[in-house]
Write a structure and sequence with these properties.
heterotrimer; A alpha/beta; B alpha/beta; C alpha+beta; A: alpha/beta; Fumarate Reductase Iron-sulfur Protein, Chain B, domain 2; Rossmann fold; four-stranded parallel β-sheet; 20 helices; about 50% helix; B: alpha/beta; FAD/NAD(P)-binding domain; 2 domains; 24 strands; globular
Chain lengths: ~425, ~425, ~550
Amino acid sequence: MAERMQICNLSEHNFEQCTKCSICTTVCPVAAVTTDYPGPKQAGPDGERYRLKDPAYFDKALKLCLNCKRCEVACPSGVHIADIIQHARMRATEGHRATLRDTMLANTDLLGTMANLVAPMANATLGLKPTKLLMDSVMAIDKHRTFPAYSRQKFTTWYKRHAAKQQDAFAHHVSYFHGCYVNYNFPKLGQDLVKLLNAVGYGVHLLDKEQCCGVALIANGLYKQAKRQARTNIDNIRTSVNRDQRVVLTTSSSCTFNMRDEYPSMLGIDNADVRDSISLATRFIYRLVDEEKIKLVFKQDYKRRLAYHTACHMQRMGWQLYSIELLRMIPGLDLVELEQNCCGISGTYGFKKENYERSQAIGSVLFKDIEKAGVEAVTTDCETCKWQIEMSTGLPVENPISVLADALDVEATRKANGI
Amino acid sequence: MRMDTVIIGGGLSGLACGISLAKRGKRVTIVASGQSTMLFNGGSMEMLGYVDGKAVENPLEAIASLPESHPYSKIGADRIASLAERVKLLFSDSGIDMTGSANANHWRITPMGIAKPAWLTLSDHLRIDDINRLPARRLALMCIRGYFDQPNAMLAQGLRDLGFEVEMIEFTTDDITALRRSPSEMRATSLAKRLVSNSALQRVADQFNSLASDADMVLMPSVFGQTDSSDFQMLQSMTNKPLRLVATLPPSVAGMRMMTQLRHYFKMLGGTYLTGDTAVSGTFDGDRLTSITTAKLSDMPLMADNFVLASGSFISRGLRADYERVYEPVLGVDIDADADREQWTRFGVLNAQSYFGYGVATDDQLRCLKQGKPIQNLRAIGSVLSGHDAVKMGDGTGVSLLTAIAAADHIRENK
Amino acid sequence: MVTSDIYQKEYDVIIVGGGATGAGAARDCALRGLSVLLVERNDYSTGATGRNHGLMHSGARYAVTDGESASECISENMILRRIARHCVEETDGLFITLPEDDLQYQQTFVEACQRAGIRADIIAPDEARRIEPAVNPDLIGAVRVPDASIDPFRLTVANLLDARMHGAVTLNYHEVEGVIINQNRVEGLKLLNKRNGEHVEVRGRVVVNAAGIWGQRIAQQAGVNISMFPARGALLIFGHRVNNMVINRCRKPANADILVPDDTVCVIGTTSDRIPIETVDDMRVTREEVDVLLKEGVKIAPSLATTRIIRAYAGVRPLVASDDDPSGRSISRGIVCLDHAKRDGLEGFITITGGKMMTYRLMGEIATNAVCAKLGNTAPCVTASQPLPGSEEGAPDQRDATKRYSFGQRAAIGRHGSLAARIEKDNDIDNALVCECEGVTVGEIKYAVHQLHVHNLVNLRRRTRVGMGTCQGKLCSCRAASLMGELSGDVKAAQEDLAAFLDERWKGMRPVAWGDTLREAQLTAAIYEGLCGLDKAVNMEGKEDVQ
């Protein structure tokens, strides 16, 4: 022990590396729009010293934290400020029951399953003014919000019917964690990924079983359920990695971040053996191109001007580089890299009536930037950013994978990769 | 991923070097571990403020007498003048409006009203070129009600000692009062976020126009313009007196603005800026560094022809000190520092502290030494360098900028 | 009372020393109806009172070696829980046995505790690990005792406040320059007012020497000799709590064997070294002391090896030769009350010394009894039953979750108990935080300046915890200095005071200046010297220590 003495300060979440420099306070999107939130420094490391002394010092205003992690990205001392805040919330709400509204919003897959069965009706009903008003008053889901439309056919159904059979023929293989959004709302993104990877010689497979990654469950305090689902997911990812020798790709920055980083830090689920095998598809593809293992050929006549928005969790992972560099490979794409600002939705946060105005105020800086950029569409790796930006700017938002798939000259790519 | 140059550190020095290289078409990646110490800057750059505790009048002249171990001596005193001109150009190219001269320091005014020698100062900040010819006689010092990061009375006293007539005028607006509802978050940067719309600025200007009618000049804490100087210009156009800003306690709006503008410019030149990532290790091949690995791109080493270490001093964790030693944590290069912990510091907080002079050991081309031998393609710049003292000599930002450009030159010449 | 009246009045009793003992004696005397003047050469609680563990002993530590002290401790411990609730945190304590210790000692220890009337429950190592996860997991035995933590600054101030409410006059920064003696009777003191340089004389019927280790000097000034043996102890403060119970080693008292959770931090100590009396004002902590504290400290709680240390400090305990023996062989660790009329033939002069911060009240009672005997006062002592200001029945509780307290309000109630009601909190500016680490508001600072005898930032820190957090005053000291300057109107003095405060903080940081504490120091220098130029405004050249 003596030789380890005071070599480093190792505290949970690097808590005591904080020098109180206050830099985190300059980037917090919540504190920027409301004085009800004490800001990341006070809510995080400052408050934590008092909470260590006595949990009674917990401040209810901490629930206003978006968990966007921008404070952590800005921190020059490596303090996991948002983790400190989230853990304090977790300790303080242990044993509390979540409200019906929060439970409903958090269970994105349950809601999806029900809605898929009756998609046209669900879309119509959820979009109707009386329904919205009812949800606003009874459920406290803000009436301005439009639930993302539900698809008539789930991604998994499409995959089984139209794609599954062909996949074994490829020389290389990956697994795909599609997540709730692709499955229930936007199967096209999953289809685009299959198209893209197939074109470069990779077969795409589903996990034996996947459940919602649980990012919304954690945000809404449903930790037990989140833990159960996380265990199922990690078990199935493990099978894919160990039995099938397949890495697991996603097309959602939030699912990726949640499974790689929040599982161990928030839920105490050990994923160390498979963490490196969980990756965002753009990262995986970029690496293949960078190592000259595959080639991408794009359509000659493709011409678009898009703005790239770095989702908060993407920024926290530091992976926007991969998506941006990949997109820059498209010759006809004029890509504007937006300043890194939060869109304000933060998953289910912006859906709640009490957060609506704050959510829009937070996003306003980004929306103005998008307006100034003069683009035909926005591209981002996060589906909830997509809803928020579409609702607030009227511009379509696409995942970089869809942009790539759209711009890809499939035949030429296949040829270039010898398929 | 292969680049021409990878820079470890995204502060003033890293960005200045990155811009210099990117401007000449090089592919540059900067790895920035959080935001930089520029957030403690007061809106000025200092080349050399003090020698032996005495204020320096002509930095270019004084630099010639610095010891060999000083980074300026390594660059070569004769080269400083031309590098200094390029620094000014770099700022104006980035849209940062600074004035000053390398052969005649002016005085910047600190948040406590003390005049310190400076090389360049943002043009919207108060500066004094000649202490006998003040830019105004009567100052209205506008004090924001409920804002505690500006020691107003000390500032006023300091300005009076310099010969100004100062009237302290407290004011507030609805936007400011609303912000004060937060017990903790009324900071310069949060004020700057709220005082952006024309109506919010007009409310401030109305206060100035009605309360400061006797003054020649209105002085105001630097709480405007996080991203550029347009908010200040708008406020000036609404105010019927010349308006100047004075630095506050951190976080500094001016510092944040300068960093944003430099980062923008760097990206505009095609540079890649990895925010919130940290270099963790490097791979050497003989006397060359072949790649570095970062925490977040853990399985993709960043390869490059040249590397620059711009990771800052202890604050920025470019240098580390533990119970037993001082070291450079990423690449393990040689350090100039005392081995004995007792020697790192002295009693008396305002005495010169030895650790300020600690840093990475380099040769005369700013190449880092490892076990005494220079690494051919690795240069150190800025606060991570040994042999200077930002606090006692007032040379911190100057060393950051001038070594950055000198290193960029070395990298180009070595091709 | 105007200042001149203060100096002209003849008091029943003058007490020298503004530590816990002096404050306790002043309170007791005042409550018994005596007219009281207390003088202190620096700030209140600057001596041994403010430089110990902040441990409210159960007495268990002394049970084996000094049964009398142990009994005094447990009885005072129970009293303080009642009368000083806002200064006390009822943490309980563990006495742990490690593999390198003799487990047999545990039995001796528990029996001794029982003899002294201290509850001591042997618990299984598993249970100890459960109730205090920070404890060294290798422990082989544990005993639970009613130790607690106590804030000596608050305690002293509460005693002074009560004394003043009962008519006492208390003066800090008044140093004794001489003792006025007339025909073998002490009649008063010559004082230097250190704040304005004025020399004054004050008169009293009895003078109580409660100056701790400095009491030897006071006695000399009165022409009597007391042999004191200063025992110096160094301690380290960690940046936050790692433990929530006091942890002791279950063995004969030795170096660094107690870890105490104090407010937001925890403190390991102490070393113990006899030092020459001439060096009692040198409180610098040496490298060797730091090394010993760390080496032993990690045995109590292994996480200390990787926890940031924010400062180091040292204090001096006054041990007294019970019989004038200059060799120091027959030293008493207990309370010593000397009536110099009986001992030296000098009337009107009493020395109260020895003892511990923990037994300050009892020392005050013993001294007051001696004073009353001289003055023929027969009023009974009520300090054991009457709560201190702030700790009255029904005082608000900062833990009350039903109240919507702000962070600053909760912290203030924790510090001032019911007196927190005197802090302005009805407007946004008074609720604004000055010290963000410790939750000190503008309102609390105004309250401290106006009602708690605050003349400078160091005083303010002792009353409120300004600058006692992780950053050691980096953000708050400028805000606080600026506020103090506005309140006093003397800006230059506020600037000098700011520099002195930073210097005082640095004094404690320097011995542990590595890692994040060194980063903190560099950032502080970058702000106050680099950005602000404070070093150009004040002249501290050559000054190494500023009280």
